[in-house]
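Dear H.,

Thanks for agreeing to be a second pair of eyes. The structure we're designing against is below in token form, covering all 359 positions.
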């Protein structure tokens, strides 16, 4: 796999720019020093947060965690616990909450001037077995949902800027996705979760989060209808998160398609964020594939910049050393901005220059 040295690439670009045939025009400008400005600086200048998911089980706590943490805090101003705020992590036994790991991520964020996105309160996956193997009446399931949401949101009141309250409630054909909450409570679990979260922290922005809603289609239509209905009913939903787990090339929407789709959700009065961006390529990847990947990332950032309601882009990790992709999508990987040795890839430079220069 090709490695990318940031200074070498920056210098090569500057030299190439000076290498024309003309000899009569003014002398070429001096070679510019490579731009070392972090992503978060350019994002902030555009009123955007740029975030990364972080899994404590990864390098955060590992032997090379120092580099991981310093790159994370240098480049990003938002942190999303990749797993540590999921139901099975926070309430492994009924009524017993384990906050220590998520607390450490929240403390890291605070110490480094980073916002926190909470992920995720109500989902059909990563549920503890005491819950899924128990026998519950609908009323009991509603109480369990309300207790979890209010305890967790209450614990982090004032520390979590926004919550993914409900994650992936829709199936790919746009119908209600079956799962523990839908099966026990029915579709109303969604409204119940938002109401409980709002009661526990009225200042947090509450999100519906899903994948496959970045393009026109049955699922996006159904998410739109769901969110329109929730808004009409006065349910305190403030935003929609498009996860953005894309495949490179045709598996990533163009800036126009994505911006049009985001505008539709924004017209409901919602914030529209990119919450779990990664762009996977076949591994081992080629230089051409990584260039295409860079264009794909560029499209997503450009769409967000065109959308007033989009003020947050989160990537699902930041180094190819640590990503859920290889173990989930066999034969795919290299989906993030930095390679496995923390060197910026073309995608990093594409994101940074788009944040700097606009879409
Ligand atoms: C993934 C994590 O990245 C993995 O570490 C974990 O094993 C499974 O979950 N959509 C989501 C995220 O909302 O929570 C998922 O995260 C990726 C897909």
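And this is the sequence the design step returned. I haven't edited it by hand at all.
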């Amino acid at each position: 796999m090709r490695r990318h040295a940031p200074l070498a690439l920056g210098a090569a670009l500057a030299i190439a720019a000076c290498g024309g045939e003309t000899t009569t025009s003014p002398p070429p400008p001096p070679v510019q020093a490579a731009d070392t400005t972090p992503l978060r600086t350019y994002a902030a200048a555009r009123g955007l947060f740029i975030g990364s998911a972080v899994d404590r089980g990864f390098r955060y706590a590992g032997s090379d965690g120092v580099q991981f943490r310093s790159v994370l805090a240098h480049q990003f101003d938002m942190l999303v616990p990749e797993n540590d705020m999921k139901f099975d992590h926070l309430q492994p036994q009924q009524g017993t909450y384990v906050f220590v790991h998520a607390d450490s991520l929240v403390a890291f964020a605070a110490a480094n001037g980073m916002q926190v996105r909470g992920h995720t309160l109500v989902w059909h996956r990563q549920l503890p077995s005491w819950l899924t193997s128990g026998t519950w009446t609908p009323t009991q399931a509603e109480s369990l949902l309300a207790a979890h949401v209010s305890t967790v949101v209450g614990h982090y009141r004032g520390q979590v800027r926004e919550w993914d309250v409900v994650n992936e409630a829709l199936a790919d054909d746009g119908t209600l996705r079956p799962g523990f909450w839908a099966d026990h409570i029915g579709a109303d679990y969604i409204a119940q979760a938002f109401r409980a979260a709002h009661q526990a922290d009225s200042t947090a922005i509450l999100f519906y989060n899903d994948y496959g809603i970045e393009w026109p289609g049955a699922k996006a239509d159904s998410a739109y209808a769901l969110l329109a209905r929730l808004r009409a009913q006065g349910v305190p939903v403030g935003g929609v998160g498009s996860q953005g787990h894309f495949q490179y090339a045709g598996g990533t929407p163009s800036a126009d398609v994505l911006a049009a789709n985001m505008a539709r959700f924004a017209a409901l009065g919602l914030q529209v964020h990119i919450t779990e961006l990664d762009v996977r390529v076949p591994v081992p990847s080629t230089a051409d594939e990584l260039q295409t990947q860079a264009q794909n990332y560029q499209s997503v950032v450009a769409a967000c910049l065109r959308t007033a309601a989009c003020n947050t882009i989160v990537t699902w990790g930041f180094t190819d050393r640590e990503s859920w992709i290889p173990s989930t999508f066999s034969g795919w990987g290299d989906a993030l901005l930095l390679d496995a040795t923390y060197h910026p890839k073309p995608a990093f430079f594409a994101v940074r220059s788009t944040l700097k220069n606009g879409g």
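Two observations from my side: DSSP finds 15 helices and ten strands in the chain. Residues 1-23 have pLDDT under 50 and may be disordered.

Warmly,
E.
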